Target: Nitrite reductase/ring-hydroxylating ferredoxin subunit
Amino acid sequence: MPDRVLCQSQDLAERGLALRFTLLWGGRERNAFVLRYDGQVYAYINECAHIPIELDFNPGDFFDYSRSWLVCSTHGAYYAPDTGLCLGGPCPGRKLVSLPVREYAGQVCLIEEKTQHE
Ligand code: FES
Model:
């Protein structure tokens, strides 16, 4: 199965707004997002590890004011952008569910073959 193109590389600014998308995961449609941090692209299911609700109040706006952490808009859990590990707030030590993405030829792609067995 070919990779799924999510966006063009230039669509993801460093520590800027994320692109939201949906995918089938765990047998149901889930909301997810992809963003750029320290030059790399990362994608996660858009669901807080504290309570399973979306993190972003303003769609696509996941970074905190310092642009260093992904923050949940409900109770303020903050996550490392490169690992999804919660480092503070109500659920430290838990993680966002990461998704396999890669970037090549100017495109950001979801690696579909790795999402089919989840
Ligand atoms: S729902 Fe995200 S910190 Fe509580």
The beta strands are 4-8, 19-25, 28-37, 40-45, 70-71, 78-79, 86-88, 98-99, 101-104, 107-110. The domain at 4-114 is CATH 2.102.10.10 (Rieske Iron-sulfur Protein). The chain has a mean pLDDT of 95. The two ends are 15 Å apart (CA to CA).
